[in-house]
Amino acid sequence: DNSSAFQNIQFFTAGENERMRISGSGDVGIGTTSTTAARLTVTSGGTDPQILVKNSAGNGAEILFEDNDGGTQNAKITFSQNGSNQLYITTGYDSSSDLNRIYFQPGGETAMTIRGGNNATGNAGNVGIGTIIPKSKLHILDGTAGSYTPISDSDTLIVESQTAGGISLVGTGSGSNGNTKITFGTPSDLS
Description:
Helices cover 2% and strands 30% of the residues. By secondary structure, the chain is mainly beta. The longest helix has 4 residues, at 187-190. It is elongated, with a radius of gyration of 25 Å.
């Protein structure tokens, strides 16, 4: 029977309290009767977590994301308490061209990028703020200054702006702890 009354599988507890449903199109809703938002919708009106992922063997709780091809084309979020609390955000493919990137996009705009890969181009571990292609270990972009290649012996930090910009160091202004400094030297100069 294909009538609307028979298109869902519904799970009830304590009489008439629907707790979960599987729609005719295969969408699953837990704590909701509406399954149209996603393949899995979990709703809770309380303060408890909506989803708990736990590894009872102590090997780290993990969520794996896989796009179409599968295999190493994946990403995961792992939480481990092996010695201390550790949170990993990992891409599975070790790109020889540093195409592995993790983007932080509040409001849909890329605010920060972490670039990875096998370091064949020397860009693994670069962090960009305001750019998706960081050119240094830390690249802060406030509008492009134009096309350029950083000078290799001074490319650890790049602050780039298309208008007048700068770096401000601000201290409390009281006593020796109120001073702000930039120190240049070798390890022996600083010890």
